[in-house]
Amino acid sequence: MQFDDDAQLDPSQVEDVRPSGPRPGGGGCMVPIGGRGGGCLLLILAVVGMFLFGVFPSPFSGNESGRQGGGQGAGRQPSAPGAPGNLAARCRTGADAQQSEDCRVVGTVNSIQSYWRQAFDERGRRTYTPAKTVLFTQAVNTGCGTADYAVGPFYCPADRKVYLDLTFFDTLQRDFGAEGGPFAQAYVIAHEYGHHVQNLLGTMSRVGPDSRPGAGGTSVRLELQADCYAGVWAQNAVKTGFFREPFSKKDIDQALSAAAAVGDDSIQRRTQGRVTPDAFTHGTSLQREKWFTVGYESGDPKRCDTFSGGI
User: Which sequence spans correspond to the domains of the chain?
Assistant: First the structure.
């Protein structure tokens, strides 16, 4: 995953609300429960098993009934705005993205949104409206309520923002067995922007009221389509001008490893020791790998119709 050193980044697309700015590196459970390390993993597994990584668990319409006052982050102080202009000062070019995790997020978000803007223009389907990514620590206030870091990365349709606690990626690698790496992170971010695309196209408003869990349910189909959209971006990313060359097999393998690690079946085996298809919300490991691959190999959003036929 090599950025073009001369690519001009737009840090205004990423908002940093972490109290102390960029993390010093090395994650870990930030708010352990029970005073011992094992409780943290159990907490994360339990929450992630329900929501990782997708749309914030609130009504898709984004009306006031969806603005939950005491969501997953109740009892923890949400992140406050960090130093203004911090990212703007540090993240200017692709060379910065090669050296800094924060700037890599900026560059990835820039590329994803550049692709979708072009895709919308080419197809004449509405106008692409950019969505900010918000970097937070532990908990954050959103248009969908207060969210806890244990929910994992998510998209809030009410305020049209992607929320991301970067320590999640340490947990994904350490506790879920994902390979890790920069492109695993890029895949997760691209998945969340897939939800933004669904919101702009009206897919969420059509599916939301009737969204239901289960192996063939609409919730799973919505998530698998976001995986497919992530693959579509990956195929077209170099055309956005932010990357020096197409992604390598190693990059794609990182994405597939992350997708497999957070399949419903994998999560359920870790949390309850058995697989319960009726409770699926995001799809199995194989399904998540499959639909990312469909998007990546085709490079065509029209191939991401997860709502027709089998999945």
Answer: 11-303
